[in-house]
Amino acid sequence: MGEGNEGIFPVKDALEMVIMFDRSGKIVYANDAAEVKLEYDKDLCGRNISDIFPNHFATAENGLETEYPFGHGLQNLVAYRKNLTCFPVEVRIMESDGYPETYICMANDTLVKEHLRREIAQVKQEVRQAEKVKTEFVANVTHELRTPVNGVLGNIRELLEMETDPDKLRPMQMIERCCGDMNKIIDNILDFSKLEAGKFTLEPHRFHVRDMLDYVKAHHINKITEKGLEFFVTVSPRVPEYVVGDELRIKQILNNLLSNALKFTSVGKVTLEVLKTAQVNDRIELFFIVIDSGIGIDKADRDKLFQSFSQVDASISRKYGGTGLGLNICKQLAELMGGRIAVESKKGVGSTFSFSIWVDACSDDSGASFRTDDVKKSALMKSRGEMQGQDPGALKQFGTQENRAALEKNLSKLILCVEMENWEKAEMFMETIRQLTERAPREVGRAVLRLKMAIQRGNYEKVVSGFEEVKGFLQ
Ligand code: ADP
Protein backbone atom coordinates (compact mmCIF):
# COMPACT_ATOMS: atom_id res chain seq x y z
CA MET A 1 0.00 0.00 0.00
CA GLY A 2 1.20 3.61 -0.05
CA GLU A 3 1.29 6.14 -2.89
CA GLY A 4 0.09 3.67 -5.55
CA ASN A 5 -2.99 2.63 -3.54
CA GLU A 6 -4.33 6.09 -2.78
CA GLY A 7 -6.89 5.98 -5.57
CA ILE A 8 -8.78 3.11 -3.96
CA PHE A 9 -9.18 4.98 -0.69
CA PRO A 10 -12.02 7.48 -0.95
CA VAL A 11 -10.80 8.69 2.43
CA LYS A 12 -7.75 10.42 0.99
CA ASP A 13 -9.33 13.86 1.21
CA ALA A 14 -11.54 13.15 4.21
CA LEU A 15 -11.47 15.66 7.06
CA GLU A 16 -11.11 12.78 9.50
CA MET A 17 -7.60 11.32 9.95
CA VAL A 18 -7.40 7.80 8.52
CA ILE A 19 -4.43 5.57 9.25
CA MET A 20 -3.98 1.86 8.41
CA PHE A 21 -1.44 -0.32 10.14
CA ASP A 22 -0.48 -3.98 10.17
CA ARG A 23 -0.15 -6.46 13.03
CA SER A 24 3.31 -5.16 13.92
CA GLY A 25 1.92 -1.61 14.15
CA LYS A 26 3.64 -0.44 10.98
CA ILE A 27 1.64 2.29 9.28
CA VAL A 28 0.82 1.24 5.73
CA TYR A 29 -1.48 4.08 4.80
CA ALA A 30 -2.24 7.62 6.06
CA ASN A 31 -4.56 10.10 4.40
CA ASP A 32 -3.79 13.80 3.91
CA ALA A 33 -5.65 14.87 7.06
CA ALA A 34 -3.48 12.53 9.16
CA GLU A 35 -0.26 13.79 7.52
CA VAL A 36 -1.26 17.44 8.05
CA LYS A 37 -2.65 17.13 11.59
CA LEU A 38 0.23 15.04 12.83
CA GLU A 39 2.64 17.35 10.98
CA TYR A 40 4.38 14.72 8.91
CA ASP A 41 5.74 15.43 5.48
CA LYS A 42 4.29 12.54 3.51
CA ASP A 43 6.51 10.28 5.65
CA LEU A 44 3.90 8.90 8.05
CA CYS A 45 3.81 5.58 6.17
CA GLY A 46 6.52 3.34 7.52
CA ARG A 47 6.23 4.77 11.04
CA ASN A 48 4.63 2.78 13.85
CA ILE A 49 1.19 3.38 15.37
CA SER A 50 2.94 3.54 18.75
CA ASP A 51 4.59 6.79 17.57
CA ILE A 52 1.13 8.31 17.32
CA PHE A 53 -0.48 6.72 20.40
CA PRO A 54 2.49 5.87 22.68
CA ASN A 55 0.17 5.65 25.72
CA HIS A 56 -1.81 2.77 24.20
CA PHE A 57 0.49 0.94 21.79
CA ALA A 58 4.04 -0.36 22.20
CA THR A 59 6.20 -2.40 19.85
CA ALA A 60 7.46 -5.74 21.13
CA GLU A 61 9.48 -8.55 19.64
CA ASN A 62 6.43 -10.63 18.88
CA GLY A 63 4.40 -7.78 17.38
CA LEU A 64 2.28 -5.00 18.79
CA GLU A 65 1.52 -4.77 22.51
CA THR A 66 -1.78 -3.14 23.34
CA GLU A 67 -4.87 -3.34 25.46
CA TYR A 68 -6.84 -1.18 23.08
CA PRO A 69 -10.46 -2.43 22.76
CA PHE A 70 -10.64 -2.91 18.98
CA GLY A 71 -14.15 -2.51 17.68
CA HIS A 72 -16.58 0.17 16.78
CA GLY A 73 -16.76 2.19 19.96
CA LEU A 74 -15.31 5.68 20.15
CA GLN A 75 -12.34 6.18 22.49
CA ASN A 76 -10.76 9.38 23.69
CA LEU A 77 -6.99 9.19 23.25
CA VAL A 78 -4.07 11.57 22.99
CA ALA A 79 -2.31 11.72 19.59
CA TYR A 80 1.33 12.76 19.29
CA ARG A 81 2.66 14.85 16.42
CA LYS A 82 6.02 14.31 14.76
CA ASN A 83 7.51 17.03 16.97
CA LEU A 84 6.21 15.16 20.07
CA THR A 85 3.56 17.73 20.98
CA CYS A 86 0.10 16.23 21.47
CA PHE A 87 -3.64 16.89 21.18
CA PRO A 88 -6.86 15.07 22.16
CA VAL A 89 -8.60 12.87 19.60
CA GLU A 90 -11.73 10.79 19.34
CA VAL A 91 -10.66 7.45 17.86
CA ARG A 92 -12.22 4.33 16.40
CA ILE A 93 -9.84 1.46 15.54
CA MET A 94 -11.02 -1.81 14.01
CA GLU A 95 -9.84 -4.65 11.88
CA SER A 96 -10.10 -3.86 8.20
CA ASP A 97 -12.66 -5.92 6.28
CA GLY A 98 -10.91 -5.55 2.93
CA TYR A 99 -7.27 -5.95 3.97
CA PRO A 100 -6.34 -9.02 6.03
CA GLU A 101 -4.18 -8.54 9.09
CA THR A 102 -4.63 -4.81 8.82
CA TYR A 103 -6.25 -2.33 11.19
CA ILE A 104 -7.93 0.89 10.25
CA CYS A 105 -7.85 3.88 12.61
CA MET A 106 -10.14 6.86 12.16
CA ALA A 107 -9.50 9.84 14.38
CA ASN A 108 -11.00 13.27 14.88
CA ASP A 109 -9.17 16.18 16.41
CA THR A 110 -11.26 17.14 19.45
CA LEU A 111 -9.08 20.07 20.41
CA VAL A 112 -11.59 22.57 18.98
CA LYS A 113 -14.45 20.66 20.60
CA GLU A 114 -12.54 20.60 23.87
CA HIS A 115 -11.86 24.33 23.56
CA LEU A 116 -15.55 24.94 22.91
CA ARG A 117 -16.53 22.75 25.87
CA ARG A 118 -14.19 24.71 28.13
CA GLU A 119 -15.46 28.01 26.73
CA ILE A 120 -19.08 26.95 27.31
CA ALA A 121 -18.22 25.90 30.87
CA GLN A 122 -16.55 29.26 31.42
CA VAL A 123 -19.47 31.21 29.94
CA LYS A 124 -21.87 29.20 32.12
CA GLN A 125 -19.76 30.02 35.14
CA GLU A 126 -19.77 33.70 34.18
CA VAL A 127 -23.55 33.67 33.70
CA ARG A 128 -23.97 32.05 37.13
CA GLN A 129 -21.71 34.68 38.63
CA ALA A 130 -23.62 37.48 36.87
CA GLU A 131 -26.91 35.97 38.13
CA LYS A 132 -25.51 35.93 41.63
CA VAL A 133 -24.41 39.55 41.37
CA LYS A 134 -27.82 40.52 39.93
CA THR A 135 -29.70 38.68 42.70
CA GLU A 136 -27.56 40.30 45.36
CA PHE A 137 -27.99 43.69 43.72
CA VAL A 138 -31.78 43.29 43.53
CA ALA A 139 -31.88 42.09 47.14
CA ASN A 140 -29.78 45.06 48.30
CA VAL A 141 -31.64 47.69 46.29
CA THR A 142 -35.07 46.43 47.32
CA HIS A 143 -33.92 46.24 50.92
CA GLU A 144 -32.61 49.79 50.71
CA LEU A 145 -35.91 50.91 49.20
CA ARG A 146 -37.90 49.30 51.96
CA THR A 147 -36.26 51.39 54.68
CA PRO A 148 -37.38 54.83 53.36
CA VAL A 149 -40.80 53.47 52.36
CA ASN A 150 -41.37 52.14 55.87
CA GLY A 151 -40.09 55.45 57.23
CA VAL A 152 -42.73 57.36 55.26
CA LEU A 153 -45.38 54.78 56.17
CA GLY A 154 -44.66 54.97 59.90
CA ASN A 155 -44.78 58.77 59.93
CA ILE A 156 -47.88 59.07 57.82
CA ARG A 157 -49.70 56.62 60.09
CA GLU A 158 -48.80 58.74 63.11
CA LEU A 159 -49.99 61.88 61.34
CA LEU A 160 -53.18 60.11 60.29
CA GLU A 161 -53.98 59.36 63.91
CA MET A 162 -53.68 63.06 64.80
CA GLU A 163 -55.35 64.56 61.73
CA THR A 164 -59.07 65.33 61.68
CA ASP A 165 -59.38 67.69 58.70
CA PRO A 166 -60.96 65.60 55.88
CA ASP A 167 -59.20 67.68 53.20
CA LYS A 168 -55.83 66.72 54.65
CA LEU A 169 -56.84 63.18 55.52
CA ARG A 170 -57.54 62.17 51.92
CA PRO A 171 -54.06 62.89 50.50
CA MET A 172 -52.49 61.39 53.61
CA GLN A 173 -54.48 58.18 53.14
CA MET A 174 -53.34 58.18 49.54
CA ILE A 175 -49.70 58.35 50.69
CA GLU A 176 -50.34 55.46 53.08
CA ARG A 177 -51.87 53.36 50.28
CA CYS A 178 -48.99 54.18 47.92
CA CYS A 179 -46.47 53.05 50.54
CA GLY A 180 -48.40 49.80 50.95
CA ASP A 181 -48.33 49.25 47.17
CA MET A 182 -44.64 50.01 47.07
CA ASN A 183 -44.00 47.40 49.79
CA LYS A 184 -45.97 44.84 47.78
CA ILE A 185 -43.86 45.55 44.70
CA ILE A 186 -40.67 45.22 46.76
CA ASP A 187 -41.91 41.86 48.16
CA ASN A 188 -42.72 40.62 44.65
CA ILE A 189 -39.34 41.59 43.24
CA LEU A 190 -37.56 39.93 46.16
CA ASP A 191 -39.58 36.71 45.85
CA PHE A 192 -39.17 36.65 42.10
CA SER A 193 -35.40 37.06 42.22
CA LYS A 194 -35.10 34.38 44.92
CA LEU A 195 -37.28 31.96 42.94
CA GLU A 196 -35.33 32.63 39.74
CA ALA A 197 -32.04 32.04 41.56
CA GLY A 198 -33.39 28.76 42.99
CA LYS A 199 -32.84 30.11 46.50
CA PHE A 200 -36.41 29.93 47.63
CA THR A 201 -37.19 27.56 50.47
CA LEU A 202 -40.58 26.64 51.82
CA GLU A 203 -41.24 26.79 55.54
CA PRO A 204 -43.95 24.25 56.36
CA HIS A 205 -45.67 24.17 59.73
CA ARG A 206 -48.97 22.97 61.13
CA PHE A 207 -51.85 25.37 60.57
CA HIS A 208 -55.63 25.57 60.67
CA VAL A 209 -56.97 25.69 57.11
CA ARG A 210 -60.24 27.47 57.84
CA ASP A 211 -58.54 30.06 60.08
CA MET A 212 -56.13 30.78 57.25
CA LEU A 213 -59.08 31.27 54.89
CA ASP A 214 -60.78 33.60 57.39
CA TYR A 215 -57.59 35.62 57.54
CA VAL A 216 -57.45 35.80 53.74
CA LYS A 217 -61.08 36.89 53.61
CA ALA A 218 -60.49 39.58 56.25
CA HIS A 219 -57.58 40.87 54.19
CA HIS A 220 -59.89 41.61 51.25
CA ILE A 221 -63.08 42.55 53.04
CA ASN A 222 -62.58 46.33 52.63
CA LYS A 223 -62.14 46.04 48.89
CA ILE A 224 -65.18 43.74 48.66
CA THR A 225 -67.44 46.16 50.50
CA GLU A 226 -65.96 49.17 48.73
CA LYS A 227 -66.82 47.62 45.38
CA GLY A 228 -70.16 46.23 46.53
CA LEU A 229 -69.27 42.73 45.35
CA GLU A 230 -70.61 39.44 46.63
CA PHE A 231 -67.98 37.15 48.09
CA PHE A 232 -68.34 33.48 48.98
CA VAL A 233 -65.88 31.05 50.51
CA THR A 234 -66.74 27.33 50.50
CA VAL A 235 -64.58 24.63 51.97
CA SER A 236 -65.37 20.99 51.35
CA PRO A 237 -65.97 19.08 54.59
CA ARG A 238 -63.32 16.65 53.34
CA VAL A 239 -60.62 19.29 53.83
CA PRO A 240 -59.00 18.51 57.21
CA GLU A 241 -58.91 21.19 59.87
CA TYR A 242 -55.16 21.10 60.30
CA VAL A 243 -52.48 20.38 57.71
CA VAL A 244 -48.73 20.88 57.51
CA GLY A 245 -47.66 23.24 54.74
CA ASP A 246 -46.21 26.67 54.08
CA GLU A 247 -49.20 28.70 55.22
CA LEU A 248 -47.57 32.03 54.36
CA ARG A 249 -46.98 31.04 50.75
CA ILE A 250 -50.42 29.47 50.33
CA LYS A 251 -51.88 32.75 51.61
CA GLN A 252 -49.64 34.62 49.20
CA ILE A 253 -51.05 32.72 46.19
CA LEU A 254 -54.62 33.14 47.42
CA ASN A 255 -54.13 36.84 48.13
CA ASN A 256 -52.70 37.40 44.69
CA LEU A 257 -55.50 35.55 42.92
CA LEU A 258 -58.16 37.25 45.03
CA SER A 259 -56.61 40.71 44.58
CA ASN A 260 -56.64 40.17 40.84
CA ALA A 261 -60.21 38.84 40.91
CA LEU A 262 -61.36 41.87 42.91
CA LYS A 263 -59.25 44.28 40.86
CA PHE A 264 -60.75 43.13 37.57
CA THR A 265 -64.37 42.70 38.76
CA SER A 266 -66.64 45.68 39.13
CA VAL A 267 -70.04 43.96 39.33
CA GLY A 268 -71.09 40.51 40.40
CA LYS A 269 -69.21 38.17 42.64
CA VAL A 270 -65.99 36.46 43.53
CA THR A 271 -65.91 32.99 45.04
CA LEU A 272 -63.18 30.95 46.62
CA GLU A 273 -63.60 27.22 46.93
CA VAL A 274 -61.30 24.70 48.59
CA LEU A 275 -61.45 20.98 47.92
CA LYS A 276 -59.47 17.95 48.91
CA THR A 277 -58.80 16.19 45.61
CA ALA A 278 -56.45 13.35 46.56
CA GLN A 279 -54.72 11.62 49.43
CA VAL A 280 -51.70 9.33 49.14
CA ASN A 281 -50.70 8.00 52.56
CA ASP A 282 -50.07 11.13 54.62
CA ARG A 283 -49.93 13.50 51.66
CA ILE A 284 -53.04 15.46 50.79
CA GLU A 285 -53.76 17.35 47.60
CA LEU A 286 -55.72 20.54 48.16
CA PHE A 287 -57.37 22.28 45.24
CA PHE A 288 -58.25 25.99 45.35
CA ILE A 289 -60.58 27.69 42.87
CA VAL A 290 -61.03 31.46 42.57
CA ILE A 291 -63.91 32.48 40.30
CA ASP A 292 -64.78 36.02 39.33
CA SER A 293 -67.35 37.69 37.11
CA GLY A 294 -64.89 40.32 35.94
CA ILE A 295 -63.49 41.53 32.64
CA GLY A 296 -62.16 38.10 31.61
CA ILE A 297 -59.08 37.34 29.52
CA ASP A 298 -58.80 36.64 25.78
CA LYS A 299 -57.75 33.13 24.79
CA ALA A 300 -54.67 34.52 23.04
CA ASP A 301 -53.55 36.34 26.19
CA ARG A 302 -54.07 33.42 28.53
CA ASP A 303 -50.83 31.64 27.61
CA LYS A 304 -48.66 34.62 28.51
CA LEU A 305 -50.33 35.14 31.87
CA PHE A 306 -47.91 33.09 33.91
CA GLN A 307 -44.80 34.54 32.31
CA SER A 308 -42.87 37.10 34.31
CA PHE A 309 -43.57 40.82 33.72
CA SER A 310 -46.60 39.89 31.61
CA GLN A 311 -49.72 41.99 31.60
CA VAL A 312 -52.46 41.53 29.10
CA ASP A 313 -51.98 44.93 27.55
CA ALA A 314 -50.55 48.33 28.31
CA SER A 315 -53.96 49.93 28.83
CA ILE A 316 -54.70 47.37 31.56
CA SER A 317 -51.51 48.17 33.42
CA ARG A 318 -52.25 51.90 33.11
CA LYS A 319 -55.78 51.46 34.43
CA TYR A 320 -55.22 48.78 37.08
CA GLY A 321 -51.49 49.02 37.87
CA GLY A 322 -49.29 46.04 38.83
CA THR A 323 -45.94 44.65 37.81
CA GLY A 324 -47.02 41.49 35.98
CA LEU A 325 -44.99 39.39 38.41
CA GLY A 326 -47.78 38.11 40.66
CA LEU A 327 -49.04 35.17 38.59
CA ASN A 328 -45.53 34.05 37.71
CA ILE A 329 -44.69 33.94 41.42
CA CYS A 330 -47.97 32.06 42.10
CA LYS A 331 -47.09 29.51 39.42
CA GLN A 332 -43.60 28.98 40.79
CA LEU A 333 -44.89 28.70 44.37
CA ALA A 334 -47.62 26.20 43.43
CA GLU A 335 -45.05 24.12 41.55
CA LEU A 336 -42.67 24.25 44.54
CA MET A 337 -45.53 22.80 46.59
CA GLY A 338 -45.90 19.98 44.06
CA GLY A 339 -48.95 21.40 42.29
CA ARG A 340 -50.03 23.35 39.23
CA ILE A 341 -51.90 26.52 38.40
CA ALA A 342 -54.41 26.95 35.59
CA VAL A 343 -56.82 29.49 34.20
CA GLU A 344 -60.08 29.37 32.32
CA SER A 345 -61.67 32.57 31.19
CA LYS A 346 -64.10 34.22 28.83
CA LYS A 347 -63.72 37.83 27.81
CA GLY A 348 -66.46 39.90 29.40
CA VAL A 349 -67.80 36.97 31.44
CA GLY A 350 -65.14 36.23 34.03
CA SER A 351 -62.14 34.13 34.97
CA THR A 352 -61.50 30.98 36.97
CA PHE A 353 -58.02 30.54 38.40
CA SER A 354 -57.31 27.25 40.11
CA PHE A 355 -54.25 25.72 41.69
CA SER A 356 -53.36 22.54 43.49
CA ILE A 357 -50.74 21.94 46.19
CA TRP A 358 -49.66 18.97 48.27
CA VAL A 359 -49.58 19.26 52.07
CA ASP A 360 -48.98 16.78 54.87
CA ALA A 361 -51.77 15.44 57.01
CA CYS A 362 -51.45 16.05 60.75
CA SER A 363 -51.26 12.62 62.31
CA ASP A 364 -52.29 13.92 65.74
CA ASP A 365 -55.56 15.62 64.90
CA SER A 366 -56.45 15.14 61.25
CA GLY A 367 -58.42 12.00 62.11
CA ALA A 368 -60.34 13.93 64.70
CA SER A 369 -60.90 16.73 62.26
CA PHE A 370 -62.22 14.30 59.68
CA ARG A 371 -64.60 12.99 62.33
CA THR A 372 -65.65 16.50 63.28
CA ASP A 373 -66.32 17.25 59.63
CA ASP A 374 -68.17 14.01 59.26
CA VAL A 375 -70.27 14.82 62.30
CA LYS A 376 -71.06 18.25 60.87
CA LYS A 377 -71.75 16.82 57.48
CA SER A 378 -73.93 14.01 58.75
CA ALA A 379 -75.83 16.49 60.93
CA LEU A 380 -76.47 18.48 57.80
CA MET A 381 -77.46 15.42 55.85
CA LYS A 382 -79.56 14.19 58.76
CA SER A 383 -81.64 17.33 58.90
CA ARG A 384 -81.97 17.25 55.14
CA GLY A 385 -82.78 13.55 55.25
CA GLU A 386 -85.31 14.01 57.99
CA MET A 387 -86.90 16.79 56.07
CA GLN A 388 -87.16 14.61 53.05
CA GLY A 389 -88.05 11.52 55.05
CA GLN A 390 -85.04 9.60 53.80
CA ASP A 391 -82.24 7.52 55.25
CA PRO A 392 -79.32 9.97 55.49
CA GLY A 393 -76.66 7.27 55.20
CA ALA A 394 -78.08 5.88 51.96
CA LEU A 395 -78.68 9.39 50.69
CA LYS A 396 -75.00 10.20 51.02
CA GLN A 397 -73.87 6.96 49.40
CA PHE A 398 -73.48 7.58 45.67
CA GLY A 399 -75.40 5.04 43.57
CA THR A 400 -77.98 4.02 46.17
CA GLN A 401 -81.64 4.30 45.23
CA GLU A 402 -82.14 7.24 47.59
CA ASN A 403 -79.04 9.01 46.35
CA ARG A 404 -79.99 8.53 42.71
CA ALA A 405 -83.55 9.76 43.29
CA ALA A 406 -82.34 12.85 45.12
CA LEU A 407 -79.80 13.57 42.40
CA GLU A 408 -82.41 13.18 39.63
CA LYS A 409 -84.76 15.51 41.47
CA ASN A 410 -82.13 18.19 42.09
CA LEU A 411 -80.76 17.94 38.56
CA SER A 412 -84.17 18.54 36.99
CA LYS A 413 -84.82 21.46 39.33
CA LEU A 414 -81.42 22.86 38.47
CA ILE A 415 -81.98 22.70 34.71
CA LEU A 416 -85.38 24.31 35.14
CA CYS A 417 -83.79 27.23 37.00
CA VAL A 418 -81.17 27.54 34.27
CA GLU A 419 -83.87 27.59 31.58
CA MET A 420 -85.56 30.39 33.51
CA GLU A 421 -82.19 32.10 33.95
CA ASN A 422 -82.51 31.99 37.72
CA TRP A 423 -78.81 31.38 38.27
CA GLU A 424 -78.91 32.06 41.97
CA LYS A 425 -81.44 29.31 42.58
CA ALA A 426 -79.55 27.01 40.20
CA GLU A 427 -76.53 27.45 42.45
CA MET A 428 -78.53 26.32 45.43
CA PHE A 429 -79.48 23.04 43.72
CA MET A 430 -75.92 22.71 42.50
CA GLU A 431 -74.64 22.81 46.08
CA THR A 432 -77.03 19.98 47.00
CA ILE A 433 -75.86 17.98 43.95
CA ARG A 434 -72.28 18.55 45.00
CA GLN A 435 -72.97 17.21 48.46
CA LEU A 436 -74.84 14.22 47.06
CA THR A 437 -71.84 13.33 44.89
CA GLU A 438 -69.16 13.88 47.52
CA ARG A 439 -68.54 10.14 47.80
CA ALA A 440 -68.89 9.48 44.09
CA PRO A 441 -65.99 8.21 41.95
CA ARG A 442 -63.47 10.80 40.79
CA GLU A 443 -64.81 11.15 37.24
CA VAL A 444 -68.29 11.94 38.58
CA GLY A 445 -66.77 14.48 40.97
CA ARG A 446 -64.96 16.15 38.07
CA ALA A 447 -68.12 16.28 35.94
CA VAL A 448 -70.00 17.85 38.86
CA LEU A 449 -67.22 20.38 39.31
CA ARG A 450 -67.40 21.31 35.62
CA LEU A 451 -71.15 21.73 35.88
CA LYS A 452 -70.71 23.88 38.96
CA MET A 453 -68.18 26.12 37.23
CA ALA A 454 -70.45 26.50 34.20
CA ILE A 455 -73.29 27.57 36.50
CA GLN A 456 -71.14 30.02 38.39
CA ARG A 457 -70.06 31.53 35.07
CA GLY A 458 -73.63 31.57 33.73
CA ASN A 459 -72.56 29.63 30.64
CA TYR A 460 -75.77 28.08 29.30
CA GLU A 461 -74.15 25.77 26.70
CA LYS A 462 -71.64 24.40 29.17
CA VAL A 463 -74.36 23.91 31.79
CA VAL A 464 -76.40 21.85 29.33
CA SER A 465 -73.46 19.66 28.35
CA GLY A 466 -72.38 19.36 32.03
CA PHE A 467 -75.91 18.42 32.99
CA GLU A 468 -76.00 15.68 30.31
CA GLU A 469 -72.61 14.41 31.49
CA VAL A 470 -73.69 14.12 35.14
CA LYS A 471 -77.03 12.55 34.13
CA GLY A 472 -75.07 10.05 32.02
CA PHE A 473 -73.37 8.78 35.18
CA LEU A 474 -76.72 8.17 36.83
CA GLN A 475 -77.84 5.99 34.00
P1 ADP B 1 -50.15 42.25 38.29
O1 ADP B 1 -49.32 42.43 39.50
O2 ADP B 1 -49.81 43.20 37.20
O3 ADP B 1 -51.61 42.13 38.54
P2 ADP B 1 -50.29 39.44 37.65
O4 ADP B 1 -49.23 38.51 37.22
O5 ADP B 1 -50.96 39.11 38.94
O6 ADP B 1 -49.63 40.86 37.71
O7 ADP B 1 -51.37 39.54 36.51
C1 ADP B 1 -50.95 39.74 35.18
C2 ADP B 1 -52.07 40.19 34.30
O8 ADP B 1 -53.02 39.14 34.14
C3 ADP B 1 -52.87 41.36 34.84
O9 ADP B 1 -52.27 42.59 34.58
C4 ADP B 1 -54.17 41.19 34.05
O10 ADP B 1 -53.99 41.71 32.76
C5 ADP B 1 -54.31 39.68 33.94
N1 ADP B 1 -55.20 39.12 34.99
C6 ADP B 1 -54.82 38.47 36.11
N2 ADP B 1 -55.89 38.05 36.82
C7 ADP B 1 -56.98 38.47 36.15
C8 ADP B 1 -58.40 38.36 36.38
N3 ADP B 1 -58.91 37.72 37.45
N4 ADP B 1 -59.22 38.91 35.46
C9 ADP B 1 -58.72 39.53 34.35
N5 ADP B 1 -57.40 39.68 34.09
C10 ADP B 1 -56.53 39.16 34.96
Describe this structure as you would to a colleague.
It is a single chain. With 475 residues, the chain is α+β, with helices and mostly antiparallel strands. It contains 15 helices and 14 strands. It has helices spanning 32-37, 49-52, 111-162, 166-196, 209-227, 247-263, 299-302, 314-320, 326-336, 366-388, 392-396, 401-419, 423-436, 442-456, 460-474, and strands spanning 17-22, 27-30, 57-60, 63-66, 75-80, 86-95, 102-109, 205-208, 230-235, 242-245, 269-280, 283-292, 341-346, 350-361. The strands form three sheets. Strands 8, 9, 10, 11, 12, 13 and 14 form a seven-stranded mixed β-sheet that branches. Strand 5 and strand 6 (86-95) form a beta hairpin. Helix 12 (401-419) packs antiparallel against helix 15. The longest helix has 52 residues, at 111-162. The radius of gyration is 36 Å and the shape is elongated. The model is unreliable at 1-8 and 366-392 (pLDDT under 50). It binds adenosine-5'-diphosphate.
Q: Could you give a quick summary of the protein structure above?
A:
The chain is of the alpha+beta class.
> Which ligands accompany this protein?
adenosine-5'-diphosphate
Categorize the overall geometry: elongated
Instruction: Provide the low-confidence segments as ranges.
Output: 1-8, 366-392
| DSSP E strands, number | 14
Distance between the termini: 85 Å
Helix content class: 40-55%
Largest sheet: 7 strands, mixed
Which structural class best describes the helix and strand composition? Answer: alpha+beta
- Count of alpha/pi helices: 15
* H/E series: EEHHEEEEEHHEHEEHEEHHHEEHHHHHH
Strand content: 15-25%
Radius of gyration: 36 Å
User: What is the average of the pLDDT values?
Assistant: 84
